[in-house]
Amino acid sequence: MTRDEIAQAVLEAIGEWRGPQSTSHLEIDDRTCPVGGVEGFDSIAGIAATIHLEQQLGLSDLRDNVFLSPDGKGAQSLSEIVDELHALRTAPEED
Predict the structure, then answer these.
(1) Which residue of 8, 15, 61, 95 is 20 to 30 Å from 50, comparing CA positions?
(2) pLDDT per residue over 33-81, tens digit each?
(3) How far apart are CA 85 and CA 8, in angstroms?
(4) What's the sign of the alpha-carbon dihedral 44, 46, 47, 49?
(5) Do residues 66 and 46 lie in contact, with contact meaning Cβ atoms separated by under 8 Å?
């Protein structure tokens, strides 16, 4: 899965949370932090979107909320989220 495909999956996860507003109205780029940067998207929404991404990307080992930094003290940008997910998707599987 390419980085662009993962970015699209993240945008779709945000769109799922937003409902009928869809992603077409999102003003978001690689530097945007969805938590705090997308109207109404908070850490609780990030948990729901993370669950959506686990299912969409076939990953079962995601943190509770990939939209927050690993230490949970700050929001991650779209680029940081995509980098983390891409690394997990391309990591060799353990036996």
Answers:
(1) 95
(2) 999 999 889 999 999 999 999 999 999 889 999 999 999 899 999 999 9
(3) 12
(4) positive
(5) yes
* DSSP string across the chain: --HHHHHHHHHHHHHHHHGGG-GGG----TT--HHHHSTT--HHHHHHHHHHHHHHHT-S---S-TTB-TTSSSBPPHHHHHHHHHHHHHSPPP-
- Structure tokens of 23? 């992603």
What are 42's strand-pairing partners? none
pTM for the full predicted model = 0.88
CA–CA separation, 57 vs 78, rounded Å? 16
The rounded distance, in Å, linking the Cα atoms of 38 and 14 is 9
- What average pLDDT does the structure give for the chain? 89
Q: Which residue has the tokens 């940067």?
A: 37
The pLDDT score that the predictor gives to residue 89 is 87
β-partners of residue 85 are none
